[in-house]
Amino acid sequence: xxxxxxxxxxxxxxxxAHVGHxxxxxxxxxxxxMQQLNTNSRFLHDNLVLYAQRLQATLPDKLxxxxxxxxxxxxxxxxxxxxxQYTGHKDIITLENAYHGHVSSLIDISPYKHHQLSDGVRNPxxxxxxSPDVYRGKYRADHPDPAxxxxxxxxxxxxxxxxxxxxxxxxxxxxxxxxxxQVIPPPGYFQQVAGHVRKAGGIVIADEVQVGFGRVGSxxxxxxxxxxxxxxxxxTMGKPIGNGHPMSCVVTTNEVAQAFLTSGMEYFNTFGGxxxxxxxxxxxxxxxEKEDLRGNATRVGKYLNxxxxxxxxxxxxxxxxxxxxxxxxxELVKDRTKLTPATAEAQEVIYKLKEQHILLSADxxxxxxxxxxxxxxxxxxxxxxxxxxxxHILTEIEKALGLKLSDVxxxxxxxxxxxxxxxxxxxxxxxxxxxxxGSGDGVLRRTKRVKT
Length: 452
Description:
Blueprint lengths: L9 E2 L12 H13 L9 H11 L8 E5 L2 H16 L3 E5 L8 H4 L3 H4 L11 E4 L16 H18 L4 E7 L14 H11 L3 E5 L26 E4 L10 E5 L1 H8 L13 H16 L2 H20 L5 E7 L2 E9 L4 E2 L1 H13 L2 E2 L1 E3 L5 E4 L7 H22 L51
Parallel strand pairs: 1-12, 3-4, 3-5, 5-6, 6-7
Antiparallel strand pairs: 2-8, 7-8, 9-10, 10-11, 10-14, 13-14
């Protein structure tokens, strides 16, 4: 990114500019379509059908009906309407620290936003399950089966809801929690949750607004990390879908769509799926494939993860490194045993980086997790630059605090070990979707950054 004075900034956080800021192919596609036609979506246009076909081909077969809307919030709001109509139930199960959007229905299911409110203000039809965080959560990496333990928490909520004479409509979760602190669910978690929820007559919504379109590298969609035996009933998309253009989508099964159709209330979105949005969406898919951005996410993501793991051996403030592809979190703690959040220190890192023209941010319930979600064209040179700067900044902070590595127990062995289903967070493993490219040779390529 460049400011008004031409100063260049390295963007490590902008998961909206998915294929790069102002990518010329995307800009060209939007401009050319705008010169030809842009109109109310009551007028039919080939781009809508072409884009729906391309998008559906990246998903499991049963996810076959697309609703185009204009933002991730609008997508998640529509997903709730679909769930309520299909099940005939009202109650929703969400996760701690979740964020799903800014409209009223989504603030209700976003503890990241409403956790500070009193119980009397909260929606009684919304129920919050523990975040499946094996580093800081209720069940950690040393638990014999954290996936089952966290899934059983959802089962308990279902039983309590039924015991109160209510029924569950849906469980909604980000496939990888972003605002919640870059949380990677343990393998098998979503499969078991889906079993409990569907047995109770509910459905499962996967929110891919922040993590979809190849960010995890090995797959197009982050929910696919859990394995082929997990398929959500609804998938919501936004942010990267249009590379900064206001566009989003809800994809669901024919059964859910048919139930929505029989509600008696026509669904219409004036501008969702307009010709320009769909032209831009097609260009984004083309760039992801043409430039092997999934392969880049895998290779550079592994390189960045390895660099950060080496920093953990040097810096007592680094408590955990976790992630997949170009979705990585660095949790800072003042004490690795007590997991005391290093919130002020995380903010200091961000401020110091910005002074050196690098944009990073912190999130999680304690705002102590440095989060990497860069555009997918992020390079190994970029990774070298930002990690080198973080190294120097942490060294200064630790010196000021009097923190020494020798004061930290088990530095060599205290790293949280995670198994990522269907992926090992670094070795190429493409699925068979249309965005596969077959060029994942695992070779790191340093590319020059060109100002456009």
